[in-house]
What we know:
Number of helices: 0
Radius of gyration: 19 Å
Distance between the termini: 58 Å
Largest sheet: 9 strands, antiparallel
Strand content: over 45%
Order of helices and strands: EEEEEEEEEEEEEEEEEEEEE
Shape: globular
Number of strands: 21
Helix content: under 10%
Structural class: mainly beta
Low-confidence stretches: none
Amino acid sequence: MSNPTYFAPIGGHPCQTELLTGRAVFTDAYAVIPKGTMRDIVTSFLPFWTKTRLWVLARPLSGFAETFSQYIMEVAPGGGSDRPEPDSEVQSVLFVLDGTLTLTIEGKTHEMQGGGYAYIPAGSNWTLKNSSDALTRFHWVRKAYEAVEGLDFPEPVVTNERDVTPTPMPDTDGKWATTRFVDPEDMRHDMHVTIVTLEPGAAIPFCETHVMEHGLYVLEGKAVYRLNKDWVEVEAGDYMWLRAFCPQACYAGGPGKFRYLLYKDVNRHASFPFRTGARR
């Protein structure tokens, strides 16, 4: 594919002379976290990570994300972790925005750079290091794995989007396509992290309503996005969260491609968290 780009947070603080006006929106159905909010003052830190800070984009919270958490990690040269994941029931997806990193899963080492994707199964022994002389920034999506009796756990996957052919959506002449890193019919997986690409002027031409929860990070380009009853303008670096069944549609604004990293939960029965016992 031709020269994909991946927007990463710039950090810092806005100048004291800038206006306060922003595009941040938080509702019961969706949230928009613009790139301009990802400043130094809202960074966080994690145990057992060195020379690392992060922006938390989504976390399980009443009235917000339910199935996943999502971070943008920023690892300075020499930083990383030998104990990155404290929960053995949690699976991860990493997606590299810029820089390089060394990922080791069960003793096998992988060098990753911009566009790099890794799926790390729950319970894996893994480490991550930035051995370069520049910052490395990447998405880290975490979800508790929903095991199913009779299905094996998924295996690790490490690749780069440049090595994956996008799948065109039907009847779109390739103007709307999805880059899928795992087989959507593989029932072992209970979440997908993909890249959606719309050519300039292309559209999601109806209000989709999905049972899946969504997290969308705009990698490049701009668009007008329909979220519930509202049309919002989004651009590279913005993040959107949509609860299950929130209506969504989109017009890609151009002049270049509009592309976003998409999380959704898939391939499992609806759970009944408030069930107290079976009826006779």
